């Protein structure tokens, strides 16, 4: 069976807009350069392309030409416009409702050098319908921290600033079309992570895959700067 990854990259970059406009000519944050000469989303694609047969990048109407110019010629890549814009999990949740098959999805603004194959092996090892990639990170503003017990995410909270090496949401998901999941997803109107977590974590439907390597969810200029500094430190280690 052909495997497809949905990358959600249709956000408006609100928290990073001034930074992007001032220093990067207003590009989408997903196309920010890293010290290894790749962009953030190219790192995601390179990490995924040997596991997936197709990678669909969901973008907004405004940024579609930019993504097409940068990524349109890459093998396995399809770029689509998200006409709904109901939140970062919107394209992933709509794919679940449309296909009623296992969905692989992620944000287009994270970095974590994990293995999709090992992530799926983890998902297959438990009987819950949802797995989320979590990992320790450097302190970030407005982060979602998780508590895990026997693989299951038992609670979560959004904090003003996480501490170094808190276990946070990185931004990758495997979701099975369990009847409970399909029913609840169909009733969610705005597909923001917080709403998704609040709906499914209390039902003990979510497990957290922690590869025990550092990860970054790039949602502020400070997080992007820390990621770049981490890359440079790795090169000099």
Describe the structure.
With 237 residues, this protein is of the alpha/beta class. 32% of the residues lie in helices and 27% in strands. It is built from 8 helices and 11 strands. The protein has helices at residues 17-23, 40-48, 64-71, 90-99, 116-124, 179-187, 193-200, 221-235; strands at 4-8, 54-59, 77-81, 103-107, 110-111, 130-136, 141-149, 152-161, 167-175, 206-209, 216-217. A 7-stranded mixed β-sheet has the order 3-2-1-4-9-6-10, with helices on both faces. Helix 3 (64-71) links the parallel strand 2 (54-59) and strand 3 (77-81). The longest helix is centred in the C-terminal third of the chain and has 15 residues, at 221-235. It is globular, with a radius of gyration of 17 Å. It starts with a strand and ends with a helix. The model has no long low-confidence stretch (mean pLDDT 95).
Helix-residue proportion: 25-40%
Order of helices and strands: EHHEHEHEEHEEEEHHEEH
Give unreliable regions as ranges: none
- Tally of DSSP helical segments: 8
Secondary structure class reads alpha/beta
Calculate Rg over CA atoms.
17 Å
End-to-end gap: 41 Å
Largest sheet: 7 strands, mixed
Q: What percent of residues are in strands?
A: 25-35%
Task: Assign an overall shape.
Answer: globular
- Give the tally of β-strands: 11
What is the average per-residue confidence, as pLDDT, rounded to a whole number? 95
Strand line-up across the major sheet: 3-2-1-4-9-6-10
